[in-house]
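Contributing new records

If you add data, match the layout below exactly. Sequence lines come first and carry their own label; structure lines follow with theirs. Keep one chain per record. Anything else will be rejected by the validation script.
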Amino acid sequence: MVGDPVRLRQILTNLLSNAVKFTSEGRVGLSVAKAARGDRYYFEARDSGIGFEPDQAERLFSRFEQADGSITRQFGGTGLGLSISRQLAELMGGQISAAGKPGRGAVFTLMAPLPTARDAAPIVEATAERADRAPRVLVVDDNETNRKVAELILAAIGAEVVCVEDGKAAVGAVESSDFDVVLMDLQMPVMDGLSATRAIAPARPLAACRACPSWCSAPTSCASMSRLRMRRGRTIISASRCGPRR
């Protein structure tokens, strides 16, 4: 079959993790079936847990949403997992749906097109310098919620994430360790994002930090973008705020 095993694994892991979390007793199962026609496969994660009201099914896939507030208080979580899973499914050309009843469990169905590989190319072992490990991402933001959201999203795609809360800490982190990507906010206490980027760029030449040719300054809100070109061909993308932080 032709498909994306990493995305498929991430989606199914999230669906089964949810099923286990919301099932204190009973059963959790995963079944797979192929459509009678075409290359569509249906993966069903079914549990006998707390379930949910049928009219809440679509709401579950919205960011930061759970069935109701009591779910967050009792089970925790951010309400991002299903939203990310649906986005991944859609990137694969598939979709996710949910059905359930209060106290009678739930079933989440992933439909994924997985065409048969007729002339499969031989698997070539990765030879890239960093292909044997997860990408390392440094997230720099003084807002704790922003850091947590970024960490959850990046962790979902298999990244190793390090978070710091100001530009000075970012400079120290980059000096002591290598990162593949740095996501930096602009306006922060102690040292702002642009000052931190200017401090980092000359200190980490491309020869010593081949995996970090660019730095991205990600704002909370922005209307215009500016591009600053630094020494050694390094490009810094920064963003200016156009409104107050919400």
